[in-house]
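Lab channel / #folding
Pinned by the channel admin:
"Please post every new chain as: sequence first, then the structure tokens as a reply. Keep commentary short and put observations after the output so the thread stays searchable."

First post following the new format, from NK:
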Amino acid sequence: MLVTVCCSEGAAAGVAPPEARLLGARAAFDEANTLWDAGRYAEAVSRDEQALAGFEAALGSTHPEVARCLDLLGRHLLLQGSSARAEPLLLRALALRETALGKNAPEVAQTLTTLGDLYAAQHLYARAEPLQVHALAIREAAFGKEHPLVAEPLNDLANLYLAQDHYARAEPLYVRALAIREAALGRDHPDVAQTLHDLAGLYHQQMFYSRAEPLYVRAVAIWEAALGKDHPLVADPLYWLAVLYQQQGLRARAQPLLDRALAISETALGKNPLDLASLLDKLGTLYWGHRRFTGAQPLFERALALREATLGGSHPLVAESLSGLAANHQLQGSYAQAEPLHERALAIREAALGRDHQLVGYSLSDLASLYVEQGLHTRAQPLLERALTLRRAALGENHPYVADDLVALANVYVAQGSYRRAEPLLLRGLAIMESVCGERHPTVARYLSDLANLYVAQGSYRRAAPLHARALAIREAALGKSDVGVALSLNDLARLDLARGAYADAGPNLERALAILEGTLGQKHPLVAEALNHLARVRLGQHRLTEALPLLTRAFTLSEQRLREEALGFSESRLASFLQVLRRDEERLYALLRAHPDDARVRRLALSAALLLKGRSVEETADISRTVYRSLGAEDRDTFARLRGLRTQLAQLSLQGPGPLASRAYQERLEELSEQGAALEADLARRSASLRSLTALPAPAEIVDRVAAALPGDAALVEFVTYAEPSRVSGADTTGSRPPRPLRYLALVLFPDATTRALDLGPAGPIDLAASRLRDALANRDASFEAPAQALYQLAFQPLLPLLGKTRRVFLSPEGQLALVPFAALHDGQRFLVDAFDFTYLPSGKDLLPHPREGVPPGSVVVLANPDFDTARSALPEARRDAPALRKELARRGWAPTPLPGTRQEAEAIQRLLPQAQLFMGPEATKERLLRLPTPGILHLATHGFFLEDAPEPTGSRAVIHFGALGEDPQASNPADPLLRSGLVFAGARDPASSGASQAPSSGSALVTALELAGLDLWGTQLVVLSACDTGRGDVKLGQGVYGLRRAFLVAGAETVVMSLWKVDDQTTSTLMEAYYRHLLAGQGRAAALREAMLELRRTQSHPHAWAPFITMGQATPLRLARNPP
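Reply from TO:
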């Protein structure tokens, strides 16, 4: 507690100053105290500063009066939260007083106490403690050990120990301070109430409720009698008394105290915005115990506004309010709203306090906890490791906050399957918490549950069971039987019973847990969805499918609703990670369908999941692009332009290699650019959220019917799904890690009348191997293709024939390796499927749904073809001229971008068919031209493609460039982002100044990555044709499609993309493309026209290597050419 002590130090005056100046300074000093007592804090500080200037002018800068004024100004600034301004003033006051009065003067003790409070407020306890101890010693020597002025440093030192959870050291100091004050001041003095309040806090923190309650009650009574019932000091013990009652489950007693504390704060503390903000934060936290999150939010928001208005937006106290508001969103499962608040709090603390301050550790742990709840353990791990290092350094090895970080890090290891790394951390954290807080503390229960969950994951059920039972007993005793913590323990026990197959035991626990969660958190919270899924598993284990299905349906609906809310504020990478978190429950639906393929209800639920979740990250990212380009203002488009610029920087740096940068600095720069890009993506997502919500996907109950209605009457949709079989631990894990789960293929079929069929195609391994063998055979014009074409047909398509019946028009949404082969080239032993089926490829069946059209489609046709790879580098912009690392690496691998004369013929043929076509060839076929194009109606790109991997391809075709690590280190890894590992090559790809056959592209000039292409404005572009080779390649992401060029152009807005699946002969491609455009102009659909062109080419070239490499992805309808200008 800070107490203003006004000791006269004027006796040590030197030469007499002008009387008027000295009188003015003293008047300002007195007025500052008066203004402060009246709650006019800013004016008080201004008078402090006037007094300081007057004393320095009148008495000199080293006079004790100056020290007195410095001390007062420092304390006032500290109470306003301006520690950075206060510290140098207090240090100067301390030095002046020690010099003028001696190191053991009582006035020195006053400044020591204030400095100690300043460091304690910053959690710099190691710096605060010696100051408080010295202050106590000075006053004991000066006034005697029983003097009331000794009680103040005793109380402050006890507060310091309490903040560090050093209960045994704090209690005797509080007891002694209380005895001194009662003896010297009387039992009803306000200072006695302060010590009672602090001692109650000590007992409260240890959960000694019966000892804490009477002390709080007595403190309230003393302050009410001495100061009035509405004095601001009364609000604080009322608040803590309400907390105490709430923790005992006595919420009816807590609520009126809470309401009264808030009323007092509004009236009495309104004059001091910082005190009011502090209490508002506390009250918001208390509302959490009542599960009144909507009521807590305006409290946190108001506290934040008060602190920002008073202190500015970069003060550590602002970070405190941001953390509280973020936690309030997080507790409601609103993760997208919580994350930017946590990130801002962290940034403020790092900037204001330094990266190594322990308060930074709080923000790191907070942000990590958010990531853990979302299942983003890879993101959480480095934050927790750093937080643990900071807290160990600041608090020592045995502090509860250190235990929290140990256990949180252990849980990350458990989620990653690293069980051996997790167990010692869990045991250490549990030992710390039991020793500090006792064995019956709720946090001990949480740690016990975490340790038990580790043992369940390892199959050590006998070790887990007593820990879960003990955790439940602690929580019921400490929190009451209806607390969320109790529900979590019940849920954990049920998971143990599920693993053991003890369904009769699991059911009642889950029913009770579900009732508690719905009653406290509401029916839409993520924890409710989790409990519903677990209860459904129990019912399935009991062979009660009819009871399980409504639970599964409701759980999936809640998860979908949560995904829609989160997707409105996530970057693409974050959304993809979040979808992986939901993947386990999605896969359980597919496994259920495997067990019940003939149940129409199960088929519909599984198909709903596949339609909504498969390719969802493409859908949401494209939606952001469309909204930015078509609906948002100039500021948002500028942000998107900055994002495109960052992507170009990232692409250039990735492809150039480290160059002069050290490996670590290079990786850090790549991570920095990626993080900046993700932050801009998330910002754009949030800005476009309201508009994007207007075009949301159909609800889970409607999606199947809506997609069925979009199917042509003679067609069917085949949705392929790859999923991992759910695992059930059956014995102790001796490896210390989680084994991979085997994958399977599932085919879901939908007809226009909304009837469904389903078939389990079996393990994914044989199918993927057959797909790879077929693709290898088709990519080699001299290879035999019949056997691999028949093998894949028998595994992946023949089983579907009974389901399809007479349907021959099929919309395919392939998954896994099936996305990299043309189904038209499968062979049934007598003919290719192209002869019997009309295939159209979709990223997901939901792409059949009508999309908002851009009005009259652009009539322009743009062709970039036959780039001049030898364009003089002097003709290129300066930024494009340097990529020595890339040139060196490609030269080492023996690649040179060979000319493509057939693409000139291809372009000219298109212009003959479409006279309005603009041709950019030779030196005009540049990356810059492509990236700056206005939206075309048709975009045709005929050039080399590239896909980064370690298998170089032979030259002589439009083959994709396969190369591995770029840069001077052959062992360096490829870029992590698959969108940086695929792209197209344009003019200037070879450096004429280089000698030898192998001349490599300047990455800034010639290569455009898929990441950059995703930023194009193709909203209104009906068709993109990539007549380079392997443009359909990319990284396969289960559930989210192929990450490569196909994804980039779909995200950019193209309605249909034509791409190739292997390297193609230059002249053959030209012939095929000319035929394709002829059939398009004849009015055929975008997929049907390609089929006709393939059949036409097949008459002269029978090997599917020549006629089958291209597929269409997206809309299959004819082009809307009638509206194009002539």
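NK: The first strand starts at residue 715 and ends at 724.
TO: also worth noting, The chain has a mean pLDDT of 83.
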